[in-house]
Amino acid sequence: MKLPIPHLLYRHTRERQRALRIPADSEKWPEEWKDIPYKEYPRMEQTKLPEPSNLSLSLTQAALARRTERDFDNTQSLTLQEISEMLHISARKRPENSSRPHPSGGGRYPIETYVLLKESSVRSGGCFHYNVKTHSLEKLTGFPSKDVLENLLFYPWSRSAPMVIFFTAVWGRSSSKYEDFALPLALLEAGHIAQNMLMYATLSNISACTLAGFDERVIATLIDEDVQQETGVHLIAFGKKQ
């Protein structure tokens, strides 16, 4: 029987992982494995996000109530407070160390988070990078034109979302340690972050839908990066419930 390509790819990366034999003792690791890089845009316009409130959320309630929803109220925008809280509980670096609210294979943190925000009465729109250290949004460009948006997002309903968050994988962070096994590790990490965001959205009356219908080449153009070095791997559309 001919094996499907996803199975062959997964088996290949698992075999590479077994062959690496990474020492359990971190003292034996090279320095490049211990250094954790962070992406920052210090020259770009910064929007410092407000500190999150003390959320009291029920995990059971969030898990059981979560639904995929593609209908958004286009007359309302997510507030900076909501955006702050969502990013805080899903991706923010803890100030005392390098850890974050999600696991990462080997602590390499290859995933970067970007936010597409439509213009509203309280803020200008654009494409922003989330700085995990300073808990701020760094503006890269204005909001994409209609033509760019249609090329970026395959489904009309996703283009109507007031906010779209996409994740990229900076491959070199993990591949320097895990080689080909960096692929499944990055995809797993993006899923962990996404689930944190979906739990928050569920308990905050925010509609959310994850999707794979996007063009990673357009993402690379938006963030001005080489698609072979940093690639879009996952995307979530958000909006207030109708």
Low-pLDDT runs: none
The 3D shape can be described as: globular
Structural class: alpha+beta
Q: How far apart lie the N and C ends?
A: 49 Å
Strand content: 15-25%
Q: Taking Cα atoms only, what radius of gyration do you get, to the nearest Å?
A: 18 Å
Tally of DSSP helical segments: 9
Instruction: Specify the helix fraction band.
Output: 25-40%
Structural domains: how many: 1
CATH topology: NADH Oxidase
* Lateral arrangement of strands in the main beta sheet: 1-4-3-2-5-7-6
CATH class: Alpha Beta
List the secondary-structure elements in sequence, H or E. HHEHHEEEHHEHHEHE
CATH architectural arrangement: 3-Layer(aba) Sandwich
> By CATH's scheme, which homologous superfamily applies?
NADH Oxidase
Biggest β-sheet: count, sense, barrel? 7 strands, antiparallel
Instruction: Give a count of the beta strands, DSSP E runs of length 2 or more.
Output: 7
Average residue pLDDT: 87
